[in-house]
Amino acid sequence: MLFITIALRNIFRSKSRSLFAFFSVAVVAFILTMVTSVAEGLVGESIANSRLFISGDIQVEHKDYERYFRFNPLGYLVEQEPIAQLFAQKYPDLEVFARDQQPSFLYHQETLYPLMIFSYEPDDTTWINAIQVLEGEFPQATKEIAMGYDLANTYQLHIGDRVMLLTQTADGGSNAVSYTLSAIVNFPSASYNANGLIMQNSDMAYLLRTQGHTHLQITSSKSLSEKELATLAQELEKQLPEQYLLRSWHDTDAGSLLRIQHFMIGLMTSIFFILGSGVIINTAIMSLLERTTEIGLLRAFGFSTRQVRSLFVLESIILHTVAIISGILLAVMLSWLLNLFPIHLDTEATKAYSSYNISGVIRFVIKWDNLWRIALIAFTISTIVSYIPTRMITRLRISTILRTQV
Predict the structure, then answer these.
(1) 136: part of which helix (H) or strand (E)?
(2) Does 350 or 367 have the greater pLDDT score?
(3) Which of 68, 101, 285, 373 is most buried, judged by most C-beta within 10 A?
(4) Using CA atoms, how far apart are residues 317 and 4, in angstroms rounded to an integer?
(5) What is the maximum span of the chain, computed from C-alpha positions, in angstroms?
(6) CA distance 37 to 355
(7) Model-level pTM?
Protein backbone atom coordinates (compact mmCIF):
# COMPACT_ATOMS: atom_id res chain seq x y z
CA MET A 1 0.00 0.00 0.00
CA LEU A 2 2.90 2.34 0.83
CA PHE A 3 4.45 1.72 -2.59
CA ILE A 4 1.15 2.48 -4.34
CA THR A 5 0.81 5.74 -2.38
CA ILE A 6 4.37 6.80 -3.24
CA ALA A 7 3.88 5.81 -6.91
CA LEU A 8 0.68 7.87 -7.18
CA ARG A 9 2.38 10.82 -5.46
CA ASN A 10 5.25 10.68 -7.95
CA ILE A 11 2.82 10.56 -10.88
CA PHE A 12 0.87 13.65 -9.74
CA ARG A 13 3.97 15.50 -8.53
CA SER A 14 5.61 15.56 -11.97
CA LYS A 15 2.53 16.44 -14.00
CA SER A 16 4.31 17.49 -17.20
CA ARG A 17 6.38 14.31 -17.38
CA SER A 18 3.41 12.11 -16.45
CA LEU A 19 1.13 13.79 -19.00
CA PHE A 20 3.76 13.35 -21.73
CA ALA A 21 4.08 9.65 -20.95
CA PHE A 22 0.30 9.27 -20.62
CA PHE A 23 -0.54 10.91 -23.95
CA SER A 24 2.27 9.11 -25.77
CA VAL A 25 1.04 5.68 -24.72
CA ALA A 26 -2.66 6.61 -25.07
CA VAL A 27 -2.14 7.87 -28.63
CA VAL A 28 -0.32 4.65 -29.54
CA ALA A 29 -3.16 2.53 -28.11
CA PHE A 30 -5.71 4.73 -29.89
CA ILE A 31 -3.96 4.47 -33.28
CA LEU A 32 -3.45 0.72 -32.99
CA THR A 33 -7.13 0.21 -32.12
CA MET A 34 -8.32 2.38 -35.02
CA VAL A 35 -5.97 0.68 -37.48
CA THR A 36 -7.06 -2.81 -36.43
CA SER A 37 -10.75 -1.82 -36.55
CA VAL A 38 -10.35 -0.50 -40.11
CA ALA A 39 -8.40 -3.63 -41.05
CA GLU A 40 -11.14 -5.84 -39.60
CA GLY A 41 -13.70 -3.87 -41.58
CA LEU A 42 -11.74 -4.39 -44.79
CA VAL A 43 -11.32 -8.10 -44.07
CA GLY A 44 -15.02 -8.44 -43.30
CA GLU A 45 -15.93 -6.67 -46.51
CA SER A 46 -13.55 -8.85 -48.51
CA ILE A 47 -15.10 -11.99 -47.06
CA ALA A 48 -18.61 -10.67 -47.69
CA ASN A 49 -17.82 -9.63 -51.25
CA SER A 50 -16.25 -13.01 -51.98
CA ARG A 51 -18.66 -15.21 -50.02
CA LEU A 52 -21.03 -15.85 -52.91
CA PHE A 53 -18.35 -15.70 -55.57
CA ILE A 54 -16.35 -18.63 -54.20
CA SER A 55 -19.28 -20.77 -53.11
CA GLY A 56 -19.89 -22.49 -56.44
CA ASP A 57 -22.29 -19.95 -57.96
CA ILE A 58 -22.16 -19.16 -61.67
CA GLN A 59 -23.85 -16.11 -63.18
CA VAL A 60 -25.45 -15.90 -66.62
CA GLU A 61 -26.19 -12.62 -68.36
CA HIS A 62 -26.67 -11.36 -71.89
CA LYS A 63 -23.28 -10.84 -73.52
CA ASP A 64 -24.01 -7.13 -74.11
CA TYR A 65 -25.57 -6.39 -70.71
CA GLU A 66 -22.35 -5.34 -68.96
CA ARG A 67 -21.31 -3.21 -71.91
CA TYR A 68 -24.57 -1.33 -72.38
CA PHE A 69 -26.42 -1.71 -69.08
CA ARG A 70 -26.03 1.97 -68.16
CA PHE A 71 -27.83 3.02 -71.35
CA ASN A 72 -30.52 0.39 -71.86
CA PRO A 73 -30.08 -2.52 -69.45
CA LEU A 74 -33.51 -3.98 -70.11
CA GLY A 75 -32.75 -4.44 -73.78
CA TYR A 76 -30.45 -7.34 -72.89
CA LEU A 77 -32.47 -9.82 -70.87
CA VAL A 78 -32.02 -13.54 -70.16
CA GLU A 79 -34.78 -16.11 -70.62
CA GLN A 80 -34.96 -18.27 -67.51
CA GLU A 81 -37.08 -21.24 -68.57
CA PRO A 82 -35.05 -22.39 -71.61
CA ILE A 83 -31.80 -22.14 -69.62
CA ALA A 84 -33.26 -24.02 -66.64
CA GLN A 85 -34.64 -26.76 -68.89
CA LEU A 86 -31.36 -27.00 -70.81
CA PHE A 87 -29.30 -27.56 -67.66
CA ALA A 88 -31.89 -29.75 -65.91
CA GLN A 89 -31.61 -32.40 -68.58
CA LYS A 90 -27.86 -32.85 -68.34
CA TYR A 91 -27.00 -31.40 -64.91
CA PRO A 92 -29.67 -32.44 -62.37
CA ASP A 93 -27.59 -31.10 -59.45
CA LEU A 94 -27.85 -27.53 -60.72
CA GLU A 95 -30.54 -25.01 -59.78
CA VAL A 96 -31.25 -21.88 -61.81
CA PHE A 97 -32.67 -18.79 -60.08
CA ALA A 98 -33.44 -15.33 -61.39
CA ARG A 99 -31.60 -12.61 -59.48
CA ASP A 100 -32.36 -9.38 -61.29
CA GLN A 101 -30.51 -6.16 -60.69
CA GLN A 102 -31.42 -2.76 -62.06
CA PRO A 103 -30.05 0.78 -61.55
CA SER A 104 -32.79 2.99 -60.17
CA PHE A 105 -33.47 6.08 -58.07
CA LEU A 106 -34.85 6.68 -54.61
CA TYR A 107 -37.10 9.73 -54.44
CA HIS A 108 -36.66 11.17 -50.96
CA GLN A 109 -37.22 14.71 -49.69
CA GLU A 110 -37.76 15.99 -53.24
CA THR A 111 -34.37 14.65 -54.35
CA LEU A 112 -33.34 11.68 -56.51
CA TYR A 113 -30.64 9.38 -55.13
CA PRO A 114 -29.05 6.62 -57.28
CA LEU A 115 -29.20 3.06 -56.02
CA MET A 116 -29.34 -0.55 -57.26
CA ILE A 117 -32.43 -2.75 -56.96
CA PHE A 118 -31.97 -6.52 -56.56
CA SER A 119 -34.71 -9.12 -56.74
CA TYR A 120 -35.06 -12.74 -55.67
CA GLU A 121 -37.33 -15.75 -55.95
CA PRO A 122 -39.00 -16.84 -52.68
CA ASP A 123 -37.50 -20.34 -53.01
CA ASP A 124 -33.94 -19.07 -53.63
CA THR A 125 -32.75 -20.09 -50.16
CA THR A 126 -29.05 -19.71 -51.03
CA TRP A 127 -29.46 -15.99 -51.67
CA ILE A 128 -31.97 -15.40 -48.86
CA ASN A 129 -29.81 -17.17 -46.25
CA ALA A 130 -26.84 -15.01 -47.25
CA ILE A 131 -28.77 -11.89 -46.19
CA GLN A 132 -28.89 -11.07 -42.47
CA VAL A 133 -32.05 -9.32 -41.28
CA LEU A 134 -31.13 -6.63 -38.72
CA GLU A 135 -34.57 -5.06 -38.22
CA GLY A 136 -38.08 -5.98 -39.31
CA GLU A 137 -39.07 -8.97 -41.44
CA PHE A 138 -37.88 -10.08 -44.86
CA PRO A 139 -40.34 -9.00 -47.61
CA GLN A 140 -43.24 -11.46 -47.61
CA ALA A 141 -45.90 -9.56 -49.56
CA THR A 142 -46.03 -7.41 -52.65
CA LYS A 143 -44.94 -3.79 -52.44
CA GLU A 144 -42.46 -4.60 -49.63
CA ILE A 145 -38.70 -4.05 -49.81
CA ALA A 146 -35.60 -4.67 -47.69
CA MET A 147 -32.82 -2.09 -47.64
CA GLY A 148 -29.11 -2.19 -46.82
CA TYR A 149 -28.32 -0.73 -43.40
CA ASP A 150 -25.93 1.93 -44.73
CA LEU A 151 -28.50 3.17 -47.23
CA ALA A 152 -31.25 3.26 -44.61
CA ASN A 153 -28.99 5.05 -42.14
CA THR A 154 -27.83 7.61 -44.72
CA TYR A 155 -31.39 8.75 -45.48
CA GLN A 156 -32.77 8.16 -41.96
CA LEU A 157 -35.35 5.60 -43.08
CA HIS A 158 -37.12 3.27 -40.63
CA ILE A 159 -39.27 0.14 -40.71
CA GLY A 160 -42.75 0.98 -42.03
CA ASP A 161 -41.67 4.06 -44.01
CA ARG A 162 -43.03 4.48 -47.53
CA VAL A 163 -40.35 4.70 -50.22
CA MET A 164 -40.79 5.95 -53.79
CA LEU A 165 -38.67 4.26 -56.49
CA LEU A 166 -38.18 5.57 -60.02
CA THR A 167 -36.63 3.52 -62.80
CA GLN A 168 -36.45 2.91 -66.53
CA THR A 169 -38.89 0.38 -67.98
CA ALA A 170 -38.49 -2.26 -70.65
CA ASP A 171 -40.50 -0.24 -73.17
CA GLY A 172 -38.10 2.70 -72.86
CA GLY A 173 -40.31 4.73 -70.56
CA SER A 174 -40.17 5.26 -66.81
CA ASN A 175 -42.13 4.13 -63.79
CA ALA A 176 -42.59 5.29 -60.20
CA VAL A 177 -43.94 2.96 -57.52
CA SER A 178 -44.29 3.36 -53.75
CA TYR A 179 -43.11 0.54 -51.45
CA THR A 180 -43.11 -0.19 -47.72
CA LEU A 181 -39.75 -0.70 -46.00
CA SER A 182 -40.21 -4.02 -44.19
CA ALA A 183 -36.61 -4.86 -43.26
CA ILE A 184 -33.15 -3.37 -42.82
CA VAL A 185 -30.58 -5.99 -43.75
CA ASN A 186 -26.90 -6.79 -43.98
CA PHE A 187 -26.23 -7.87 -47.56
CA PRO A 188 -23.33 -10.19 -48.44
CA SER A 189 -21.59 -7.22 -50.04
CA ALA A 190 -20.74 -3.85 -48.54
CA SER A 191 -21.62 -2.03 -51.76
CA TYR A 192 -25.14 -3.53 -51.56
CA ASN A 193 -25.47 -2.19 -48.00
CA ALA A 194 -24.49 1.29 -49.15
CA ASN A 195 -26.53 1.46 -52.35
CA GLY A 196 -28.90 -1.50 -52.56
CA LEU A 197 -32.38 -2.70 -51.76
CA ILE A 198 -34.12 -5.99 -52.52
CA MET A 199 -37.63 -7.00 -53.54
CA GLN A 200 -39.37 -10.08 -54.92
CA ASN A 201 -39.08 -10.86 -58.64
CA SER A 202 -42.79 -10.22 -59.12
CA ASP A 203 -42.42 -6.69 -57.76
CA MET A 204 -39.38 -6.11 -59.96
CA ALA A 205 -41.30 -7.28 -63.04
CA TYR A 206 -44.16 -4.90 -62.18
CA LEU A 207 -41.77 -2.00 -61.65
CA LEU A 208 -39.83 -2.64 -64.87
CA ARG A 209 -42.89 -3.73 -66.89
CA THR A 210 -41.12 -6.83 -68.11
CA GLN A 211 -41.29 -10.59 -67.75
CA GLY A 212 -37.61 -11.10 -68.54
CA HIS A 213 -34.64 -11.22 -66.20
CA THR A 214 -31.32 -9.38 -66.16
CA HIS A 215 -29.31 -12.17 -64.49
CA LEU A 216 -29.58 -15.86 -63.71
CA GLN A 217 -27.66 -17.57 -60.95
CA ILE A 218 -26.66 -21.22 -61.29
CA THR A 219 -26.08 -22.97 -57.98
CA SER A 220 -24.83 -26.50 -57.43
CA SER A 221 -26.43 -28.59 -54.70
CA LYS A 222 -23.05 -30.29 -54.25
CA SER A 223 -19.93 -28.68 -52.84
CA LEU A 224 -17.51 -27.89 -55.67
CA SER A 225 -13.79 -27.22 -55.57
CA GLU A 226 -12.29 -24.45 -57.68
CA LYS A 227 -11.10 -26.97 -60.25
CA GLU A 228 -14.50 -28.68 -60.41
CA LEU A 229 -16.27 -25.35 -60.74
CA ALA A 230 -13.95 -24.24 -63.54
CA THR A 231 -14.56 -27.51 -65.39
CA LEU A 232 -18.32 -27.19 -64.93
CA ALA A 233 -18.23 -23.58 -66.12
CA GLN A 234 -16.49 -24.62 -69.34
CA GLU A 235 -19.06 -27.35 -69.95
CA LEU A 236 -22.00 -25.02 -69.30
CA GLU A 237 -20.58 -22.33 -71.53
CA LYS A 238 -20.62 -24.78 -74.45
CA GLN A 239 -24.31 -25.48 -73.79
CA LEU A 240 -25.39 -21.82 -73.65
CA PRO A 241 -26.87 -20.03 -76.66
CA GLU A 242 -24.28 -17.68 -78.10
CA GLN A 243 -26.11 -14.51 -77.02
CA TYR A 244 -25.51 -15.38 -73.35
CA LEU A 245 -22.37 -14.91 -71.30
CA LEU A 246 -21.36 -17.10 -68.36
CA ARG A 247 -19.35 -15.68 -65.47
CA SER A 248 -17.55 -18.03 -63.10
CA TRP A 249 -16.10 -16.03 -60.25
CA HIS A 250 -13.48 -18.71 -59.61
CA ASP A 251 -11.86 -17.72 -62.90
CA THR A 252 -10.38 -14.69 -61.13
CA ASP A 253 -9.36 -16.89 -58.17
CA ALA A 254 -11.15 -14.81 -55.56
CA GLY A 255 -9.77 -17.03 -52.81
CA SER A 256 -6.16 -16.21 -53.71
CA LEU A 257 -6.91 -12.50 -54.01
CA LEU A 258 -8.58 -12.64 -50.61
CA ARG A 259 -5.53 -14.31 -49.04
CA ILE A 260 -3.21 -11.70 -50.56
CA GLN A 261 -5.39 -8.89 -49.25
CA HIS A 262 -5.46 -10.44 -45.77
CA PHE A 263 -1.66 -10.72 -45.84
CA MET A 264 -1.26 -7.05 -46.82
CA ILE A 265 -3.67 -5.91 -44.11
CA GLY A 266 -1.83 -8.05 -41.55
CA LEU A 267 1.51 -6.63 -42.69
CA MET A 268 0.19 -3.06 -42.41
CA THR A 269 -1.13 -3.72 -38.91
CA SER A 270 2.18 -5.31 -37.86
CA ILE A 271 4.10 -2.25 -39.04
CA PHE A 272 1.89 0.00 -36.93
CA PHE A 273 2.42 -2.32 -33.95
CA ILE A 274 6.21 -2.06 -34.39
CA LEU A 275 6.10 1.74 -34.72
CA GLY A 276 3.81 2.00 -31.70
CA SER A 277 6.09 -0.23 -29.66
CA GLY A 278 9.01 2.03 -30.54
CA VAL A 279 7.14 5.08 -29.24
CA ILE A 280 6.31 3.32 -25.95
CA ILE A 281 9.91 2.16 -25.51
CA ASN A 282 11.34 5.62 -26.24
CA THR A 283 8.89 7.35 -23.89
CA ALA A 284 9.58 4.94 -21.01
CA ILE A 285 13.36 5.13 -21.33
CA MET A 286 13.38 8.95 -21.54
CA SER A 287 11.18 9.18 -18.46
CA LEU A 288 13.48 6.92 -16.42
CA LEU A 289 16.73 8.54 -17.54
CA GLU A 290 15.40 11.93 -16.44
CA ARG A 291 14.87 10.49 -12.95
CA THR A 292 18.33 9.06 -12.36
CA THR A 293 18.94 11.55 -9.54
CA GLU A 294 15.67 10.57 -7.87
CA ILE A 295 16.74 6.93 -7.97
CA GLY A 296 20.06 7.82 -6.34
CA LEU A 297 18.35 9.81 -3.59
CA LEU A 298 15.96 6.97 -2.80
CA ARG A 299 18.93 4.64 -2.51
CA ALA A 300 20.66 7.15 -0.23
CA PHE A 301 17.54 7.32 1.99
CA GLY A 302 17.78 3.59 2.62
CA PHE A 303 15.59 2.04 -0.05
CA SER A 304 16.99 -1.23 -1.32
CA THR A 305 17.71 -1.85 -4.99
CA ARG A 306 14.73 -4.17 -5.22
CA GLN A 307 12.39 -1.65 -3.57
CA VAL A 308 13.43 1.17 -5.91
CA ARG A 309 13.04 -1.09 -8.92
CA SER A 310 9.58 -2.24 -7.77
CA LEU A 311 8.50 1.34 -7.08
CA PHE A 312 9.37 2.64 -10.53
CA VAL A 313 7.92 -0.40 -12.32
CA LEU A 314 4.69 -0.02 -10.30
CA GLU A 315 4.50 3.66 -11.19
CA SER A 316 4.96 2.81 -14.87
CA ILE A 317 2.32 0.07 -14.71
CA ILE A 318 -0.28 2.41 -13.15
CA LEU A 319 0.36 5.26 -15.60
CA HIS A 320 0.56 3.10 -18.72
CA THR A 321 -2.47 0.97 -17.79
CA VAL A 322 -4.65 4.06 -17.45
CA ALA A 323 -3.22 5.44 -20.71
CA ILE A 324 -3.82 2.19 -22.63
CA ILE A 325 -7.40 1.86 -21.38
CA SER A 326 -8.12 5.52 -22.18
CA GLY A 327 -6.72 5.24 -25.70
CA ILE A 328 -8.66 2.05 -26.45
CA LEU A 329 -11.93 3.43 -25.04
CA LEU A 330 -11.56 6.62 -27.08
CA ALA A 331 -10.99 4.56 -30.24
CA VAL A 332 -14.03 2.37 -29.51
CA MET A 333 -16.25 5.42 -28.97
CA LEU A 334 -14.97 7.12 -32.13
CA SER A 335 -15.49 3.92 -34.17
CA TRP A 336 -19.05 3.66 -32.88
CA LEU A 337 -19.77 7.29 -33.84
CA LEU A 338 -18.21 6.88 -37.29
CA ASN A 339 -20.34 3.80 -37.92
CA LEU A 340 -23.43 5.86 -37.10
CA PHE A 341 -22.37 8.40 -39.74
CA PRO A 342 -20.53 6.30 -42.36
CA ILE A 343 -17.67 7.79 -44.35
CA HIS A 344 -18.40 7.57 -48.08
CA LEU A 345 -15.19 7.71 -50.10
CA ASP A 346 -16.95 7.46 -53.43
CA THR A 347 -20.54 8.36 -54.23
CA GLU A 348 -20.41 7.88 -57.98
CA ALA A 349 -23.19 5.52 -58.96
CA THR A 350 -21.26 4.05 -61.86
CA LYS A 351 -18.57 2.78 -59.53
CA ALA A 352 -21.05 1.59 -56.94
CA TYR A 353 -22.72 -0.47 -59.62
CA SER A 354 -19.52 -2.11 -60.83
CA SER A 355 -19.52 -5.89 -61.06
CA TYR A 356 -16.64 -6.02 -58.57
CA ASN A 357 -18.86 -4.87 -55.68
CA ILE A 358 -16.27 -2.45 -54.26
CA SER A 359 -17.78 -0.41 -51.47
CA GLY A 360 -17.16 3.29 -50.98
CA VAL A 361 -18.05 3.07 -47.28
CA ILE A 362 -15.49 2.72 -44.50
CA ARG A 363 -16.74 0.64 -41.59
CA PHE A 364 -14.96 0.14 -38.27
CA VAL A 365 -15.21 -3.32 -36.73
CA ILE A 366 -14.20 -3.66 -33.07
CA LYS A 367 -13.38 -7.17 -31.86
CA TRP A 368 -12.74 -7.85 -28.18
CA ASP A 369 -9.90 -10.26 -28.88
CA ASN A 370 -8.09 -7.51 -30.80
CA LEU A 371 -8.58 -5.08 -27.91
CA TRP A 372 -7.13 -7.62 -25.48
CA ARG A 373 -4.14 -8.17 -27.76
CA ILE A 374 -3.45 -4.45 -28.08
CA ALA A 375 -3.75 -3.93 -24.33
CA LEU A 376 -1.61 -6.96 -23.52
CA ILE A 377 1.13 -6.10 -26.02
CA ALA A 378 1.27 -2.44 -24.98
CA PHE A 379 1.25 -3.37 -21.28
CA THR A 380 3.97 -6.01 -21.73
CA ILE A 381 6.23 -3.69 -23.72
CA SER A 382 5.82 -0.78 -21.30
CA THR A 383 6.52 -3.04 -18.30
CA ILE A 384 9.63 -4.58 -19.85
CA VAL A 385 11.10 -1.26 -21.00
CA SER A 386 10.42 0.21 -17.55
CA TYR A 387 12.11 -2.70 -15.80
CA ILE A 388 15.30 -2.99 -17.88
CA PRO A 389 16.66 0.60 -17.59
CA THR A 390 15.57 0.79 -13.93
CA ARG A 391 17.48 -2.41 -13.22
CA MET A 392 20.57 -1.03 -14.98
CA ILE A 393 20.48 2.26 -13.06
CA THR A 394 19.78 0.73 -9.64
CA ARG A 395 22.79 -1.58 -10.01
CA LEU A 396 25.10 1.47 -10.09
CA ARG A 397 26.76 2.71 -6.90
CA ILE A 398 24.94 5.57 -5.15
CA SER A 399 27.99 7.82 -5.38
CA THR A 400 28.28 7.18 -9.12
CA ILE A 401 24.63 8.03 -9.73
CA LEU A 402 24.77 11.29 -7.77
CA ARG A 403 28.16 12.30 -9.17
CA THR A 404 27.02 11.94 -12.79
CA GLN A 405 24.04 14.21 -12.11
CA VAL A 406 25.99 17.05 -10.50
Answers:
(1) strand 132-136
(2) 367
(3) 101
(4) 11
(5) 97
(6) 26
(7) 0.50
